[in-house]
Amino acid sequence: MNPTEPSRPALGTLSEDERLFRDSVHAFADRDIRPLVREMDEQATIPRALLDKLFALGLMGIEIPEADGGSGASFFHAVLAVEALSTVDPAIAVVVDVQNTLVVNALLRHGASDLQRRYLPKLASSTIGAYALSEAGSGSDAFAMATRATATGDGWTLSGRKLWITNSHEADVFIVFATVDRTAGYHGVTAFLVERGFPGFAIGRKEDKLGIRASSTCELLFDDCHVPGANIVGEVGKGYKLAIETLNEGRIGIGAQMVGLAQGALDHAMTYTKARHQFGKPIAEFQAVQHQLARAATDIHAARLTVYEAARLRDTERPFLTEAAMCKLFASEVAERVASLAVNLLGGNGFVKEYPVEKLFRDAKIGQIYEGTSNLQLQTIAKQILR
Ligand SMILES: Cc1cc2nc3c(=O)[nH]c(=O)nc-3n(C[C@H](O)[C@H](O)[C@H](O)COP(=O)(O)OP(=O)(O)OC[C@H]3O[C@@H](n4cnc5c(N)ncnc54)[C@H](O)[C@@H]3O)c2cc1C
């Protein structure tokens, strides 16, 4: 080894700026979110005042340029924010995740400058966004969508329904995928930016969920909804490319959500096992318990490195498709495992709502479902490694 070669940072090393950012988000989550977590979960709502704080901290427009009112930071910063928030509440983290890694990301990468000028300042300051791809008949097979867009003189009319749309109860801006020609398969898929007030658009049923209950998940109804021609995101027939690209990136955010969740569960388990005495000593002094905690910490460390690696690859414009699928697949399994262990280590207290780990256990399950199920991640990885 050449001793004069500048030393390379370790894979998990954060810059001073990244560390300060992560710590400030964590401190905010601890102070302003933690006291609300149980009530938000039970009521399945998020107070608007808390959403306003996310905007005030710059967490809803992390990659939006400063000139448009955003934080002008990197995708990696968004990943750090999602991870830090998830240690306290993965339901709040997913609001930030969808806003940054899907909605803002799609506009920054594919939106025309007029669309960016009209919507980015709002998204950075007060407007929540949602990303509507899934339908009742098209989940994993997302491009088999039935929602159709028909050209009119000055724009398009959308007809159909979207299902499972995160943030939709609070959102004012929706990126909606519809097909302009069903016979063209995925080449007909086009992305539209729809405002809540557009005629013919309504928010439907809100789902009553197992986990991440505070995060809203609703149906969207389009009944000849008129969308101006200028509100196409990207190009007609190129929506599939936009969706694939943004979801590949979004997956890294979900990996971060699952790492944060697992870390939150492990932190609770460590605090509890050090305080709880059985057989005359803290249960953390039993080797069997220590080994379980050690394995969980190792799992989380490995998952975090896969997430950071994928995010760094994305920020430096290198291929990251396989790494993104791997990090979501692995981190969501780790989250489920660690949250389950935390429930076990808290004993009876792990099973009741007075303690926070049963919620994290419920929240963990979503990591294996949205933004591509684990089977779909395995399919992506297999396709890449077998090429
Ligand atoms: C809380 C929540 C929030 C969501 N937020 C959004 C959102 O904001 N925007 C949005 O567009 N969507 C959202 N979704 C939808 C989500 O992305 C889909 O639920 C997911 O992609 C799976 O689709 P599906 O539910 O139709 O399941 P299906 O596609 O019917 O899958 C059912 C099972 O079959 C398996 N399967 C399907 N195809 C294959 C295959 N080819 N090979 C092997 N196994 C297969 C799957 O892995 C799964 O286990 C959300 C869902 C939930 C629950």
Record keyword descriptors for this entry:
4-stranded mixed β-sheet; alpha+beta; binds flavin-adenine dinucleotide; 387 residues
Blueprint (SSEs and pairs):
Blueprint: H1 16-33, H2 37-43, H3 48-56, H4 75-86, H5 90-110, H6 113-125, E1 129-132, E2 148-151, E3 155-166, E4 173-179, E5 189-195, E6 201-206, E7 217-228, E8 232-233, H7 239-275, E9 277-278, E10 281-282, H8 287-315, H9 321-345, H10 357-364, H11 374-385
Parallel strand pairs: 1-4
Antiparallel strand pairs: 2-3, 3-7, 4-5, 5-8, 6-7, 9-10
The structure holds flavin-adenine dinucleotide.
The site of flavin-adenine dinucleotide has 21 residues, from strand 1, strand 3 and helix 11.
Describe this structure in words.
The chain is of the alpha+beta class and 387 residues long. It has 11 helices and 10 strands. It has helices at residues 16-33, 37-43, 48-56, 75-86, 90-110, 113-125, 239-275, 287-315, 321-345, 357-364, 374-385; strands at residues 129-132, 148-151, 155-166, 173-179, 189-195, 201-206, 217-228, 232-233, 277-278, 281-282. A 4-stranded mixed beta sheet has the order 1-4-5-8. It has a 4-stranded antiparallel beta sheet with strand order 2-3-7-6, with helices on one face. α5 runs antiparallel to α6. The longest helix has 37 residues, at 239-275. It is globular and about 80 Å long. The chain starts with 15 loop residues before the first helix and ends with a helix. The mean pLDDT is 97. The structure holds flavin-adenine dinucleotide. Residues 98, 131-134, 139-140, 164-166, 209, 217, 366, 369-373, 375-376, 379 line the site of flavin-adenine dinucleotide.
